[in-house]
Amino acid sequence: MVAKKAKFVHFIGIDVSKGKIDVWLCVNLGNQGHYWGQFEQSKKGFSAFKKWLEGFIGKDMSLVFACLENTGLYDDALLYFLADHNIAACVENGATIKAAKRDQRQKNDKLDAREIAMYAIRYLNELEIWEKPREIVEQLKQLLSLRSASIEHLKGLKQRIKEMDGFKWARIQKVKNYTAGIKGLRKDIDDIEKAIWELIKSDAALYKMYALIISIPAVGKITAWHFICYTNEFKRVRNGKNLAAYCGVVPFKEDSGTSVRKPPRLPNRANMTLKTLLHLCALTAIKMKGEFAIYYQKKIQEGKHVLKALNSIRNKLVLRIAAVIRNDRPYDQHYDYKSICSGA
User: Fold this and answer.
1) Which one of 116, 235, 241, 252 has the largest count of C-beta atoms within 10 Å of its C-beta?
2) Average per-residue pLDDT in the chain?
3) Phi-psi region for residue 233, left (φ > 0), alpha (ψ -120 to 50) or beta?
4) Rounded to an integer, what distance in angstroms lies between the CA atom of residue 195 and that of residue 278?
5) pLDDT tens, 124-166?
6) Is residue 40 a contact partner of residue 29, using CB atoms and an 8 Å limit?
């Protein structure tokens, strides 16, 4: 990967917002000039951006490396445009880029684009090149996003009715509860899950991954769907430990000099959706017979705090997920996963 990245000589930092993108171009590592441009978030704007870029470096886009700050939905159209035009790109956490800035006294979109470009040059060998997902995986991502949004709306409506019912004792005249919205959202969620299931069944590779993941005790279909989606069919993760760190279940300690000795703690920077799902899986796993419950009791007997013991189960679940995918075989309680997990 390092050898492949060595070919890049032109670097682009892109600050993305809903309506526009600010682009900072460093030609030949900045030795032949720095240029800034601003373009619309539209097909017309992207075409103008490409024409502007060609005016400085020509038509060979294989030497260009672009770096974007992760802004969720606003990044998607641009990432697909870059991939379609043979421009390598990476998507980085905004907090990571901010921590690498040398001067944080001033902020605007133009300067942010420049800082992103400088970050890409400085940390090129550590950055992960974004890989365009298959169309079916993108559809899965959209359906999961719709499902999450519908569940949040459903929770809000149910909580509102629950709070109103809690004040019956006040004898305040109460209007009728209108539950059509709740019924509609429940139906939408059911329809979305049916659409996801049809999508999974229609693709042999996705169905195989799904079957392998749910073979692990306490890991259900929702967790399997999200792992397939967020890891881009497990192409984004190199091994089990890498996946565990991405899910935020690996504690890190902080030491400095002779005075700072903080105990290992779980990081806040993680995929919180996967972390939440793993927590629910762990709560189920410790109630079932098998290696997870035995391991949990062992940690409790060693004097570990309940949450630390539970996190060890989350970590073990992640390693098992990585192992069954890497080993291409369903979960087997009696199989020796130790060697697999170390290289999974």
Assistant:
1) 116
2) 89
3) left
4) 23
5) 998 989 999 999 999 999 999 999 999 999 998 888 878 777 7
6) no
Structure tokens at 326: 């890497």
**182, part of any domain:** no
Q: Please state, in angstroms and as integers, the Cα–Cα distance from residue 25 to each residue in 85, 110, 203, following that order.
A: 17, 11, 40
| CATH number of the domain residue 87 falls in | 3.30.420.10
8 Å CB contact between 65 and 88: yes
Taking alpha carbons only, the member of 80, 227, 198 closest to residue 136 is: 198
Final residue belonging to a domain, choices 81, 100, 126? 126
Domain count, the chain: 2
> Exposure of 16 by Cβ count < 10 A (0-12 exposed, 13-18 middle, 19+ buried)?
buried
**What backbone torsions phi and psi does residue 56 show, to the nearest 5 degrees?**
-105, -35
Q: What DSSP designation does 18 have? A: S
What are the CA-CA distances from residue 74 to residues 38, 85, 203 (Å)? 15, 19, 28
Residue position matching structure tokens 């996003």: 145
Structural domain boundaries, residue 314: 240-343
